[in-house]
Amino acid sequence: MKTQDRLDLIKQVGEEIIQEEELKKLLESGEELIAYDGFEPSGQIHIAQGIVRAINVNKMIKARVRFKMWIADWHALTNNKMGGDLNKLKIVAKYFIEVWKASGMDLSKVEFLWASDMVRDSDYWQLVIRVGMTNKLARFIRTAEFMGREESTEQLTAAQIIYPCMQIADIFKLGAKITQLGMDQRKVNMLAREIGPQLGYWKPVVVSHHMLMGLGKPPSADSDRATRTVKNKMSKSNPDNAIFMTDTTEDIERKINKAYCLEGDIKENPVLEYYKYIVFESFEKLGISEVKIERPEKFGGNISFKTYSDLEKTFAEKKVHPMDLKVVLIKYLDQLIEP
Prior knowledge:
The protein has 339 residues and is α/β, with parallel strands linked by helices. 48% of the residues lie in helices and 10% in strands. It has helices spanning 3-13, 20-29, 47-62, 73-78, 86-102, 115-118, 122-132, 137-141, 158-173, 186-198, 225-232, 249-257, 270-277, 283-286, 308-316, 322-337, and strands at 14-18, 34-39, 66-71, 110-114, 178-179, 205-209, 291-293, 303-305.
């Protein structure tokens, strides 16, 4: 595969790449490239963590990048996930892996590594401390979105302050030249680029994937990009704001029917996002070659779309009604999530 083809695949994953020229040089170097993503095993898994994550990882693998999935059970411990019970966290992590398998992630080419194994290494903790020594506390606190935190940083515990130091140390211990996490992790990844050379390591290339929106009305545009991403993304604390991998047909129907979808509005529209990042990426799994909307002649008759851009353009022209999209989306999501 040519360098440009590999780069194009990774650009499909990265809503933002810092820096693209650095990534191109890595691809041209001929060295084995390692990318990593970390996840906290924390209860329910929603569709962005399940299906969208599988789609993105498979694209990275196709681009001939070695992918390491970091099971951040100790990081979840600092966040008191699952009541801070490591045994429960391990069970949930294994459940996540089974969901990815069912979602079509090519597990034969993904290496799963556990933080609970890494923490036995004293060199790891030495690196965590060295990372922590590079900056004042306030600098690390400013990366609070690394945990998807929306509340005041004054509510952070001392254990949670260790988290960004661990996350940055993870990158270098895993040998990851590419960090492939969500836009909500941008601040801590940028700090890793700053700290790496100070400690004799590299500047990791940051490939930040898009964070699928929650189903509700988006917040007003009054914050920077990273903070807005956190506010806008799906939240497990609001079950009706996300589609979960265990949702029933009735759950999906209820949630999508009341999802925010202003007619003709293509900006921050969660229903359109589901089409762009899930449906049009899942044609093979759905057994379709186009999105087909069936409707009576008096409402415009049947209409089909082979690309997302065509659907978006037609919706912007108000030639497709939000309910047209919702009815078909419910069917496709139910099919994708069906056990």
